[in-house]
Amino acid sequence: MTECSERGCLKDAKRIVIKIGTSSLTYENGKTNLKRIGILTRVISDLMNQGKEVILVSSGAVGLGVNTLKMEEKPDTVSGRQAVAAVGQCKLMQIYAQNFSDYGYSVGQLLITNTIISNPEMHENTINTFNELLKLKVVPVVNENDSVAVDEIKFGDNDNLSYIVSEITDADLLIILTDTDGYYDSNPNNPDAKLYHNIYDLSEEIEKAAGGAGSKLGTGGMLTKVHACRMAAEKGRDAVIVNGNDPEIIFDVIDGKDVGTLFVAKK
Ligand code: GLU
């Protein structure tokens, strides 16, 4: 393999996990952001055309379910949310299947719970399923199984799920799309806030700063993203938190441009 360093290595990533959250998939009025999904699927298809393998971890089951059922907001009972997720997950896959088919790709749905970690047989079967799908050039679309897993729907977060997926698929790169430009040293609304470009320090200290900023001033879920990326980097996988407003930024990440925050893989 040719010598490369940090950002320059990202172009060599062969297997990539991309995570997108509900807020990127929907407008503030709750309707689906078809434009962004359209761009995301085109970018992923192009990466597949380049010979890369892409796994998409997508939220949106509950969000799209609420919208499909024309509800004002998500139900306040667990069973209500589980039912809504069952509807929304179908809608989500319908949209992905439609979009990817424009570029000649099929999608395969994997709804998982953390039993795939605790049960060795399920663990192995899941790995095999991923590998078969990737061999078939299918885009695996992964979400938590919100409709059956009570704990998941209550505490689940797809940032952690994306880390677990990067682990079990032995991915080279994890890209978490979010609504800020990356991980800042304080709240991004603060004019003095500085964006971390490359993070080498994988200690828990760096993660705690995200918790502080997130909990007080609503930087919205940065803690779980930083945690997921730190863990991935610890395991030797590069991980990037980047603004998914325009998913074409994924090309910039892979081209080694200085976008978002890269958690440099531990060698
Ligand atoms: N699995 C949830 C959903 O699809 C979202 C969980 C998360 O975004 O962390 O609605």
Strand element count: 8
Q: Structural class given helices, strands, pairing? A: alpha/beta
Number of helices: 11
Q: Please give the radius of gyration in angstroms.
A: 18 Å
Helix content: 40-55%
Give the N-to-C terminal Cα separation: 15 Å
Query: SSE string, helix = H, strand = E?
Result: EHHEHHEHHEHHEEHHEHE
For this structure, what is the CATH class? Alpha Beta
Largest sheet: 8 strands, mixed
Give me the CATH superfamily: Acetylglutamate kinase-like
In the CATH hierarchy, the architecture is 3-Layer(aba) Sandwich
State the strand order across the main sheet: 3-4-2-1-5-7-8-6
Number of domains: 1
> Which molecules other than protein and nucleic acid are bound?
glutamic acid
Strand content: 15-25%
What does this 3D model show about the protein?
The chain has 267 residues and is an alpha/beta fold. It has a single domain, classed as Acetylglutamate kinase-like (Carbamate kinase), CATH 3.40.1160. Helices cover 46% and strands 15% of the residues. It contains eleven helices and eight strands. It has helices at residues 22-25, 34-49, 61-68, 78-101, 115-118, 120-135, 150-155, 158-168, 204-217, 222-234, 249-254, and strands spanning 15-20, 53-58, 107-112, 139-144, 173-178, 198-199, 238-243, 261-263. It has an eight-stranded mixed β-sheet with strand order 3-4-2-1-5-7-8-6, with helices on both faces. The longest helix has 24 residues, at 78-101. The chain is globular, with a radius of gyration of 18 Å. The two termini are 15 Å apart. Mean pLDDT is 91; it is low at 213-220. It binds glutamic acid (GLU). The site of glutamic acid has 13 residues, from helix 3 and strand 4. Glutamic acid is lined by residues 21-22, 59-63, 143-144, 146, 156-158.
